[in-house]
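Researcher: Quick sanity check before group meeting.
Model: Go ahead. Protein one:
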Amino acid sequence: MDSNEALHVASLFSVKGKIALVTGGSRGIGLMIARGFLESGAKVYISSRKKEVCDAVAGELAKVGECISVPADVSTLAGCRSLAGEIAQRETRLDVLVNNAGAAWGAPLAEYSEAGWDKVIDTNVKSVFFLTRELMPLLEKAAKPEDPARVINVGSIDGIKAPFLETYAYPASKAAVHHMTRDLAVKLAGRNITVNAIAPGPFESQMTKWMLENHKDNIEASCPLRRIGNPGDMAGVALYLASRAGAYVNGVVIPVDGGICIT
């Protein structure tokens, strides 16, 4: 590979100069994606419900690149509108929206509460639709035929296969996210906005802490690659979808699970 080819490949996967918003960006999957974007030259806004945590994480990430905390509760329409308004006050465009904010709830079938169900569905499904809608003006200003604006939704392999834990609302919510991704991909393509989803398998996060503490050996044994995911695995897929390399990818759900879904 000569220097010109190397430069072309580097630019193909670059997000330098892009502006991104990552919800749930203060920990877990969202933090992995936010850090990957920052290390690759993007300006990143992170959002989460807890202001103190969001501010502290943004402060740490600011050592890597330009990272700004915008706390919000995206499980409500008011929260989505507030977050979109904050971004609009600061930016004239938004190149990448990562809908990652999520919640889980586990309980036996007979004890599964309405409050738990509503929390999961509102955070995991409602937020994706309404935040994307509220940010449409900024996404459209970033959109170009050869380099569309990007919406990247974070689903789960639990939305593809039935999980062994009793988390009934969670897999239902992630399956909904996957199909909403396809629906929005068709509807928004004419505006030069692509919509794709990442379906993570097991990664270290607050949400998976109990599962990995109690079942890590079994999970790794069930994975063809015999390990859980690491931050680079997640950042790499997100960078691909957000960069010029992924400009013609639309409406897909990409499992990032070491092959668990196909076993």
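Researcher: Fine. The other one?
Model: Protein two, sequence then structure:
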Amino acid sequence: MSVIEEQRRSTIPVDPVGPLSETVLSLLASSPGDERAAMSAAAAAEVAEAVAEPLADDDLHLALYLLYELHYRSFPGVHPGWEWNPAQLHLRAALEGAFFGALDEELPALVVDPAEVGDALFRLEAADEGPSLSRHLEINAELEHFREFVAHRSLYQLKEADPHSWAIPRLSGPAKTALLEVQYDEYGGGRAERMHSTLFAKTMRALGLDDAENAYLGRIPGVTIATVNLMSGFGLHRSRRGAIIGHLAMFEMTSARPNRAYGNALRRLGLGPEATDFYDEHVEADAVHENIAAYDMAGGFARQEPEHAADVLFGARALLFLEERFARHLLDTWERGESSLREPL
């Protein structure tokens, strides 16, 4: 094993799945001043442009996720200089270009009256006809299916609310106040033990899963990672502040009913409050949040910055679109009697 491979294995809990993730892992195992690393990043940027399925490609989304993690809590042993290193930013821009370019093709812009954004969001929610993953888990799923579902969701839920919080310094006025009202509850209302990420970690432990951040990253397919990269990509770009607001609004609007089903599923499977607390908390909190998020936050932002009203709807539609693909992946693989993960638990 080379020195780089040994260092990589000791800092980032994942192996590469293709040339893009291989390049990123090698970058992060080296020094930000390494000229060879910069050259390999430039070469990988050209590879990103040729990815056939940028909405779900395992390699592209693992590579992009690893780069986005530099802006959260990063990985032990990775040099902090990589966060704003020009070589990695160039590569990240190429990965983002492939991903968001494909999304733009799938979701052409809608014209919307900025004063009607809140109502438009509720119409989008009502028109959504994606498969009901929550209903399947509530009624039919076996415990192993639910454990897989939780492993998939761990990439986001263990840092729940963080991607949306990038929007806080980019808003002002009533929209900012509404966003902070939602986020305050997400972070436990002043109680660290009630932070939603902490409650999810408790659910993972109750299911016999590893609650360390990114513990299952190496098993999770691109179709899942894309749902998290969507939030990070929206949140990290000021130009996409409308999209991250729309994403959060739809996230809150579509949360209460599925979370009730997830809690019911765990009770059906014989699990107690340690497992269900996270989901039961969301039933109550998100039922309160949906109108605040749709009308005060998203609607308030659109009225304040009407030129970005279509971006709000794009963020909401992108969430529904990628979540439908995620749900179909899980349901289809389970119907075939297969694991929905790249490697079974």
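Researcher: One line on it for the slide.
Model: Residues 273-304 form the longest helix (32 residues).
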